[in-house]
Amino acid sequence: MRLNALKMGLVALISAAPALVFAHAGHEHTTSFMTGFMHPLGGFDHLLAMLAIGLWSASLGGRALWAVPMAFVGTMMVGGGLAVAGVQVPFIEQGILLSVIVMGALLVGAARFPVAVCAGIAGLFALFHGAAHGMEMPLNANGAEYALGFAAATTLLHVAGIVLGSIIERFQAPIITRITGSIIAVAGLFLAIA
């Protein structure tokens, strides 16, 4: 099963490669989808949190492998919708930074909770990430395309974390996950004081 997850992850990353070309300086985003797709990739805090969700899901295994990332993406879409609708989500930046620090700490501690609790933690943090994406949607963007774009990028980052975590699990080297978690948590602390 883990080999199938690895194959699916690699296929997803390879299929996204043409879209990533637009990340280079000098290219304009020509669609609302691409604008949304690039948003999670443009922030180090978003990248770290979303990779950490994938790593944590892989370390938990079982139903958490899909339930935790799905909870994140689903709640992120709700957060984006709230922001677009003008609902003020408080402490967005603090919530995003806290998500990086806490997710890193959960990896360091090899935290294991029931799947529903893990999905709830992911969902809580996703609300802040989604609100940030929604607030930064360009006025001329198609909202549905933009949302699909940031959901696709987030999913790919989760898949990348799951693939990396599955490789780590396959080689039975959980210390690598803990080291990665400590790097993520420290990076979150640095972002908080910078």
UniProtKB/TrEMBL annotation:
Membrane-spanning residues: 41-58, 65-85, 91-108, 115-134, 146-168, 175-193
Pfam families for this protein: HupE_UreJ
Keyword Signal attributed: yes
Classification via InterPro entries: HupE_UreJ
Keyword flag Transmembrane helix: yes
Signal sequence, start to end: 1-23
Keywords: Membrane, Signal, Transmembrane, Transmembrane helix
Source organism, top-level taxon: Bacteria
Protein name: HupE/UreJ family protein
